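Sanity check

After download, print the first record. It should look like this:
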Amino acid sequence: MNLYNLFIKPYESYNFWQILFEFLGTFFGILSVYFSIKKNIWVYPTGIISTLIYVYILFDFGLLGDCIINVYYTVMSVYGWILWARNSEDHIHVEVSWASKKEWQFGTLLFLISFIFVTIIYYYKPYIDHNFSMENTHLGLYHLDWANWLDVVTTSIFLVGMWFMAKQRIENWIFWIIGDIICIPMMIFKGLGITSVQYLVFTIMAILGYVNWKKSFKEKVN
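Expected structure tokens:
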């Protein structure tokens, strides 16, 4: 796969507004990660804008199953925003800490629930993407390739990461790093070269976030 097919060809059929919305979704996504590194509550407003843009993009392309998953992301972002607002003394920044054993157990349960939920979405995806019509539609997981199954896994990883971030736990970055690294080759396989670069940027930013939050906690303790 050459660079033209990877970065240019997929966008030849897009109109101006589709390209603009994808750019804005990416921009606000990166901005959201930047604010999260800084422990700034603006991580959530910018993140919600990004996910809502992708909800529109996916709906416009008729990818209703993926659209529903992004609605799920949006709801989790609202939950995180509420928690950060409650726990912030200056209404902007929050203090961070390591997760407890009980929180790890809940995170594991959340991963399993998310995995089942996303798998169910994919099971009904032919029906959902066919405008909720069963005409010439066959339910099942037969249409999933390895990239789709990785998508199920990474979605579950990201949702756990979002929950740990909402709780201001340093471990959230570990989930973002793992999920972002997996997404890079997955997006290349799907022909989404620009998105793969975005996840490379996310990986670097997540590593910086982990280092920054860990340093901030150490300074608070000492």
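If your output differs, re-run the checksum step. Summary of this record's structure: The radius of gyration is 18 Å.
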